[in-house]
Amino acid sequence: MIRAVFFDLDGTLVDSAPELTAGVNGLMKVVRLRPFSVEEVSRMVGKGVRVLIERVCDARGIFPTDQTVSLMMREYAKIMSELDMPASFYAGALEGVGLLKAKGFKVVLVTNKLRSMTEQFLERNDIATLFDALVCGDDTPHPKPAPDMIALACSKVEVDPQYAVMVGDSANDALAARAAHVRAVLVKTGYNEGIPIEAWAKAHGFDCVFDDAAQVCAEITAGRLRL
Asked: Of all helices (H) and strands (E), which one includes residue 165?
């Protein structure tokens, strides 16, 4: 039986592309370069803030030295902390997570976002207590698709990997789960760096794809999704 459910954030529980785009374009305003569209930013997210900034640099012809990327990451985090945009959670996602927790499942947020940004997001949307634990991109040496974050999530809620599932919208979530010996459950709502998740999942041997996180939560709660 499933004992723990790990959730990605961006593209899985919340449509954060508009917010991420606003943050990136705030950074572009600081460095006086042209802004990006939501579609462009959506294709760049997924592997954490450092990779996002490196991809932004590449797209705008900035040589991404460690110093430049670090400076831009700090500025981006500052801009994101000052954004006042309402979060657009996918229908039924938070309710589904809450029901899982009420039913006794351990629920953990496992996101490649920086911890400072994630904690601010959770507090701002009054959902800091929704999860039993939180694992962020700077909590381990390597973010998803490495297995480190999922292994840490298992440790935090004291659940063996064989009794956990990772719910996400991208190859990063799926590959991290596979490497950590956790079952991957994918949703169609997210970004996956511009590649349709259904096609990617089929090509890489992942057969558990649902419309959204609410449907996943309903299937687990009803006992129809098993390990």
From this structure: strand 164-168
